[in-house]
Please model this.
Amino acid sequence: MSAGDGAPMTKYFLAAALAILVALLVKGELMTKVIWAGVVFAVVLAGCEFANPNFYKSDIDVQQRKDGTRVLQDTPRMWEEWRRSVDKEVLREVSYRNGSAQNDVLLGKPNGGGTWDQYWLSRVRAVRSPGDGYSHEHPQKYIDYIIEQRRKAGLPELVGYP
Model:
């Protein structure tokens, strides 16, 4: 189940309901303009949905459990996105540590500033503990990937892990 399932119909309904509500509040020629604006808005939303079926879909695969918790699913797409993001940051760290990006504001420091150890430890913590109401389906798999990729790149062990 994707987090955005059912969103298109909800958006169309909300657009139509808003147009009707506003039309009820105004009278005369303005009412006609408001109704037409609502129709145009709904048509534009429908066009966006048909042009790009993923227009309303979330970038995450999430499962809502019966107890209300949300779990980030370990799908091939989610795994590939995770790997790409980790690989990109490992390359940035390598560039920083070998001196080629130390003075580059965009490439030198990790996102959010701080040290590279702090950055990686924050990602490990984010995977281990539910943040923003989400937990991970197989957290250790994602943590192990960080550790393995850093080792393959010849980077030092994380200070403070495990």
